């Protein structure tokens, strides 16, 4: 499929080739000729139907929240042992420098950072999900000493809220 940028480049090439043979045409005339070559009535119709180039299309992938942590052992206890995440990656510039840790569970990814400039403690992450009761039951069965979350019915869904040891809150919501 032709992009609009490809069609514009074709018109420019056509114009240069015609000028080399002694035929001066305007840029708009060259655009009209290319539009007809591509099977369109005119340039306006072509430009309305041709795809934009990939670089012109804005698209977003999923966001990955970064949460501030202060203690690696506490972070691992909470995120890995209690919430059931697994380590995706670990990074330190040197052995005695702050940790940057990627964790994941299913399609949910979080980045945990000891770097003071990455984020502020006390953040909230909202996580739409399915199976909130099963998650609650799983968490309660672990008998975590610092939290026994319960489901709260809200107007927008069923909410299970957990707080990490660093003041960050994760709101799991079904609904």
From TrEMBL:
UniProt-listed Pfam families: Glyoxalase_7 (PF19581), Glyoxalase_8 (PF20066)
Gene3D superfamilies xref list: 2,3-Dihydroxybiphenyl 1,2-Dioxygenase, domain 1
Domain VOC: 59-175
One biological process term in Gene Ontology: response to antibiotic
Alphabetical keyword list: Antibiotic resistance
InterPro entries: Bleomycin-R, Glyas_Bleomycin-R_OHBP_Dase, Glyoxalase_8, VOC_core
Tree of life domain: Bacteria
Similarity field: Belongs to the bleomycin resistance protein family.
Protein name (database record): Bleomycin resistance protein
